[in-house]
Design a protein that fits this description.
about 0% strand
Length: about 60
């Protein structure tokens, strides 16, 4: 659930905090790695392959 879709103020604050924490973690990872992380569909494929070497499409078949 996104920040704007949360039904309560407390939920909106929690979503905002989670988003900020994720962005901070991503910046740390990119700094350690020395390059930007892939975004969107490329990142999904990268994460799917990293677990067992197969693409997400192959796993679903």
């Amino acid at each position: 659930m996104g920040v704007k879709e949360a039904p309560t103020r407390k939920g909106k604050e929690a979503a905002k905090g989670l988003r900020q924490a994720a962005a901070s973690d991503e910046r740390k990872t990119e700094a350690r790695k020395g390059s930007e992380m892939k975004k969107g569909a490329e990142r999904f494929e990268e994460r799917a392959k990293s677990s067992d070497g197969k693409s997400a499409g192959t796993k679903q078949r």
